[in-house]
Amino acid sequence: MSSSSEQNYQNSPVITHPTRDSHECGEATENSAGEEEKASHLGLTVSDPNSVNWDGPTDPANPRNWKRGRKLIHILALSAITLYANLAAIMFAPAAQQFAMEFRVTSGIVATLTVTIFILGFAIGPLLLAPMSELYGRLIIYHVCNVVHFAFTIGCWRWTFWLILILSGATSLLTLIVMRETYEPALLERKAARLRKATGNSELRAQTSNKRLNSRQLLGRAVIRPAKILLLSPIALLLAIYTAFMFGLVYLLFTTFPVVFQMTYGFSIGITGLAYLGLGLGMMLSLILFGVLSDRLLHQPRGATIARPELRLLLMVWLSPVVPIGFFWYGWSAEAKVHWIVPILGTFFIGITIFLILIPSLIYLIDAFGPEAAASAVAGNMVLRSLFGTFIPLAGPYLYKSLGLGWGNSLLAFISVAFVPVPFFFYKYGERLRMRFPVDY
Q: pLDDT category, 390, cuts 50, 70, 90?
């Protein structure tokens, strides 16, 4: 839950010439090095003796100065949170049909919605929680969300969810033990509060306090700025529609795999989970490929001082034609009931290509909109993506029932073909569009 304001704080220069507070130490000579050395323990600045900052660039309380091992522990803890959150989104999918039978759900839309409604939370949650994290810090939001997720998962009372519950509980306990606050403005606010209590100087305030917004301003910015960027920037809007459709296709596959492989190939509910291996391995490989290739593609032409953000889109340009090929492969091989490994191989290529479209698109938005608006641009993209991921899969059961696996997936492939020129268009004309349609943040 990052924001542009956070990036501004982190990138702002730090004044490292401390002086002591007059309330605590009395009158002092402005150029007295001895007085400054004594006041350095308070973390105050020469330019504003009531402004609280870090105790120099090597202050161990600053998370940027933590030891490598401590940083790694925090990364692992956050990775564990991400893991169980994504597992919770898809682990229920193979059992959705059994759920429908047990609770006598006859509507295919309702049965599918039991899986995809989880994604709707990805659209709404950040709009509310991101501003709160800037007011109260990151750590308390993690802890509260972990506890709420744990409590509601208990209420699901099925072993599929209890496996998630075990992961959620273990991760919540881990974060409670090892994680500490990392948000600089929140840490400096707490330091200022301690100093106000210790010195009796009510004027002391964190250096970042004058840059922080109140709750109403933060909530307004969290909702209005992403919408403003989507509506006023052709790049943000078209890219959001394209990537949202790709994301919706992924979740359409997630929700229809159980029907396809149980009815076509006779997979049991337990074995159906293995049908996701093709898609999952493709996604994992896409992460590796992106890590290896992304920065290499961002070469700078001779004489250029800044690399064009559009260079991030080369992977999308190359791989977008593979998406429809993957759907043709998957659909017609399943329609012909050839060996089950063949359609799973088709989904492997779908997984690689779609994620090598989704990941570069986010990096492109960050580079294109800069630190001031990157978080809002990404937020708008994620909201639209989550909405598509929630509602596009609802058409899956009726699509396959009406057209069959072959023509149903062919329809998705044809729509994907229509989107193939989009990355090339952005790669060639993206810079012109950014210059022609700037957004006033």
A: very high
